[in-house]
Design a protein that fits this description.
41% of the residues lie in helices and 20% in strands. The N and C termini lie far apart (36 Å). It has three helices and three strands. The radius of gyration is 12 Å and the shape is globular. The longest helix has 14 residues. It has a domain of 63 residues: PNP-oxidase-like (Split barrel-like). Strands 1-2-3 form a three-stranded antiparallel sheet.
Length: 91
């Protein structure tokens, strides 16, 4: 069993930042990658090397990454890239 490179502390830090400063991005992830129609409220619950978990309007969804994240810098770059890959109307 391998150890996830994103520790609980790193996950908490990223989640707190996203929930505080990037609510629109979380809504966009839920819409584009999660397939949630008309999401109103989203909160990142956790992020791991393979996926992120977001609570959207009371429902927990998991969004898989296109690669295994190696560290917090990779997580940041990947989240930004995912946002930039969306059609402009969504982000």
């Amino acid at each position: 069993m391998s150890i996830d490179p994103l520790s609980k502390e790193v996950s908490n830090r990223i989640c707190n930042h996203m929930n505080k400063d990037h609510q629109n991005a979380l809504i966009a992830y839920a819409l584009h990658y999660g397939g949630i129609e008309n999401p109103q409220k989203a909160r990142m619950i956790s992020i791991e090397s393979e996926s992120m978990q977001i609570e959207v309007d009371g429902e927990l969804i998991s969004i898989q990454f296109d690669h295994t994240l190696t560290d917090s810098e990779d997580a940041h770059k990947t989240l930004v890239a995912m946002l930039k890959a969306m059609p402009k109307a969504q982000n």
